[in-house]
Task: structure prediction
Amino acid sequence: MPVWNKVSFDNVAEGNTSVLAIIEEIAKATSSQAGGIKNLTLTMDEMQTVIHENAAAAEQSASAAEELNAQAKEMQLYSDQLDILVGDHGKRHLHEHGGAQASGTFSAEEMNDIPAAKNLLTASR
Result:
């Protein structure tokens, strides 16, 4: 049986104190890391919410852009038809009635006198 002396017990007690201090440091670091992970999780959740909101806003913007594009194409069609009317029938109407302004444009009343233009203007409303 080994013989224990006071020096041996003091060494063991000192070693235990050191181990206890190290365990306390590990516990503090673990607690700190857990808090950091919690904050990171909250931040990631917030980012995910913002990403979903941005995706929804982008989808709405794309839908609005498609609608505006369709309306622009429709307006271009009306404009092209009006160019045709004013370019062909409108010029004949000018010569027949001796009207219109010097610039070659028509007043609203004169446009209403051109049947095809009247139909176009009515359809665009």
Remarks:
- The radius of gyration is 43 Å.
- The chain has a mean pLDDT of 81.
- Residues 70 and 76 are 10 Å apart (CA to CA).
